[in-house]
# Entry
Amino acid sequence: MEIKILGPGCARCKATSEALEKVIQSRGIQAQLTKVEDMREIVSYGVLSTPGVVIDGKVVHTGSVPTREMIEGWLAAKH
Amino acid sequence: MTETTKKELAEAREVCPTTSRGLLKDGALLVDVREADELARVSFADCEVINVPMSEFEARWNEIPRDRDVILACQVGARSLKATYFLMYQGYERVANMKHGMQRWIERGFPVHGDASIAPSGQASSCCCGEEDASSEASCGCDSSSKSKVTAGTCC
# Structure
């Protein structure tokens, strides 16, 4: 699974990254987590409001730090 | 999951305020993406301008016409560059970003409504919505490679 976190590196983006890492580790999920901080590349996903989360090429979330429940839901849908 | 596809975006066209003035005189539309409080301080004058603030841009971008030249501007040109790329993502072809934005527009002595002496760098309404860093825009990149129909005689 390939997960991308879209955001310029602000506190909310870091919190999103940490939240994802926490769930991935606790569930033992094999996933590659990448941060995308380049503005042009972020917008190339059609995203203006960050942080955004992209899982296997699909934007699943934008504009806020996702909750643990949200993250678990996305990851469960992929397994 | 949202079915949003990734699109390769070409480098955005950027024009300096001097070239922007020429384009605006020739019928381009200026889209000011600054927030209401910024507009209340100072706003672009002597051109056709609409305001679509960054905080509402995702909901209102389709108010911007596709069939004419559009120049996007903000305080120093960072938020409007993001908005320019967003319109390109949405398929707009006649869009350009005004480099250095209102700050350089005022420095050039171009017309404004409000107090031109009060032109602080724009602050984003949220940490991620429209971050701007004037220091990253210190160099003046004239748009000599611009596809603009108007060639700037005295650029930047």
In short: The first strand of chain B starts at residue 14 and ends at 15. Confidence is low (pLDDT under 50) at residues 122-131, 133-156 of chain B. The radius of gyration of chain B is 15 Å.
